[in-house]
Design goal:
The chain has 454 residues and is α+β, with helices and mostly antiparallel strands. Helix content is 50%, strand content 11%. It has 16 helices and nine strands. The chain has helices spanning 3-20, 68-80, 113-118, 123-141, 148-151, 157-163, 173-184, 226-233, 251-262, 268-294, 301-306, 310-320, 349-364, 369-406, 411-420, 427-445, and strands spanning 27-30, 38-44, 51-59, 88-94, 99-105, 193-195, 204-207, 210-214, 221-223. The strands form three sheets. It has a five-stranded antiparallel β-sheet with strand order 1-2-3-5-4, with helices on both faces. A two-stranded antiparallel ribbon has the order 6-9. Helix 7 (173-184) packs antiparallel against helix 10 (268-294), helix 8 packs across helix 10 (268-294) and helix 12 crosses helix 16. It starts with a helix and ends in a 9-residue tail after the last helix.
């Protein structure tokens, strides 16, 4: 630990002691997850009677959509409306910490989606969770808002969507097709209210009895309530389940719960629009998270790997618009796939990548905790690299030919043409070009995604 890191750690311990009112030794441990905030588990007290809290830190490098003060305001409003949230003890700013911080209660329970969706211990919870989440959203949307910061956020969803990419260049072509459709097919907006902005498995704490807490309010804003419903039903947040509402239930179950609290029910067209919106938003977010690593702001193999997931969202946009359909695709790493080009002797680049992959799977992943989590991501990155070595030449030739046929120089130019309508008279060719490109990208990054239905 450097001198600066040690000074920062001591300052955080002082902040915690002052907020809780204790002189006990404080232990700070970095938690996994929390990609847009630094999140620390705070523990102190005698063994067997420890007290635990969570410390969230927002710096210039990891700040999300809103401030930690905004999060605290949103949580307070939600709590007053009957939504279970952790109690917030203090929110402040500190130069030594390097940003703002928020200390809140630790709530016991499960947050990992795959466990909630698959383990027998949560079978009873899954049976009613979709309806419970609908009721929870209804309470959030009925919350009374006093925060000036929440009220001043721009409510226009498409402007906010494009601004969220943090880039000067347009969205990737598959996402651009979705943005163009959103602009032309927007349903009448519902009344403005508090929107959580990221309610899904992973941001919820569940116990054997059901929902214990709603977490991660950094995307909270004033907006259309159906945004939260669409986000919760987006394919990416089903985690491989065939059930559309958070992977645990049907849209009707979710909306039944919602209507029981609010007295109204959004239309199928509204939900579909916001589901597509959510898919595009996450696709833009994938690129933005990778940019955090590529810019040097935050070194993270997880952020780097997420960048390639944008192609999954492009494919899901195509599915949502009826422009593609799922199909079974072979993984070129399976037996019988094409061999990568050599030229530098043995071991080849593929041999080297395969060796790193084997090391990660046999020696690094079993170490568990944060290191094992990152090792699993790194092994997937190696598989992506190996597929690219086999397919990039063939795909590159095809892709350049398709772009030349449309008279555009690259994907960015294609996206601009989609958004400004300059290729509207050749829409069939544009769709075929985007469809082929997205499929090729997924054959490299995640061929199994091509078989997953909408």
């Amino acid at each position: 630990m450097t001198a600066m890191e040690s000074q920062r750690s001591r300052r955080l311990e002082q902040i915690v002691r002052g907020a809780i009112g204790t002189n006990d030794d404080v232990c700070l441990d970095r938690l996994t997850g929390g990609a847009s905030r630094e999140t620390l588990l705070v523990t102190f007290g005698e063994a067997g009677r420890e007290r635990r809290y969570v410390l969230r830190i927002s710096t210039a490098e990891n700040i999300g959509s809103g401030s930690l003060r905004l999060e605290a305001d949103a949580m307070a409003a939600a709590a007053a409306a009957g939504v279970p949230v952790p109690r917030v003890h203090v929110v402040g700013s500190d130069d030594v910490v390097g940003g703002t911080y928020m200390l809140m209660d630790h709530v016991d329970g499960e947050t990992i989606a795959r466990r909630i969706l698959r383990e027998d211990a949560f079978a009873d919870v899954r049976a009613h969770l979709a309806g419970d989440l609908g009721k929870t959203l209804g309470r959030i949307h009925g919350a009374s808002i006093d925060s000036e910061e929440l009220r001043t956020l721009d409510p226009d969803p498409i402007l906010r969507l494009l601004a969220s990419s943090g880039r000067d260049r347009p969205p990737d072509p598959g996402l651009a097709l979705g943005v163009a459709w959103l602009r032309d097919n927007r349903p009448p907006p519902a009344s403005q209210c508090l929107v959580h902005g990221d309610l899904r498995l992973g941001n919820l704490i569940l116990g054997r009895e059901g929902l214990r807490a709603v977490l991660d309010w950094e995307c909270a804003h004033i907006g259309d309530p159906v945004e939260d419903i669409g986000w919760l039903c987006a394919k990416v947040w089903r985690f491989g389940s065939a059930l559309p509402a958070a992977g645990v239930g049907t849209r009707d179950e979710l909306l039944d719960g919602y209507e029981s609290v609010t007295g109204w029910r959004p239309s199928a067209a509204q939900v579909h629009w916001w589901e597509l919106y959510a898919t595009i938003r996450w696709g833009l977010g994938c690129a933005l998270q990778a940019d955090r690593h590529l810019s040097g702001a935050e070194t993270s193999i997880e952020l780097l790997a997420i960048g390639r997931r944008a192609a999954e969202q492009e494919f899901d946009v195509m599915l949502g618009l009826g422009l593609d359909a799922p199909f079974r695709a072979e993984d070129v790493l399976e037996e019988g796939g094409p061999e990568p080009h050599g030229g530098y002797g043995r071991p080849t680049a593929d041999d080297l990548a395969a060796g790193v992959e084997a090391f990660l799977e046999s020696e690094a992943i079993p170490l568990g905790a944060r290191f094992g989590f990152n090792a699993r991501i790194a092994a997937n990155v190696m598989r992506t690299l190996r597929r690219e070595l086999r397919l990039r030449d063939e795909h590159g030739v095809r892709h350049r030919a398709r772009l030349e046929g449309l008279g555009v120089c690259d994907d960015e130019a294609l996206s601009r043409a989609i958004l400004d309508g300059s290729l509207s008279d050749r829409s069939d060719e544009v769709i075929e070009t985007v469809r082929a490109s997205v499929r090729e990208r997924l054959l490299v990054s995640n061929p199994h995604h091509l078989s997953r239905p909408a």
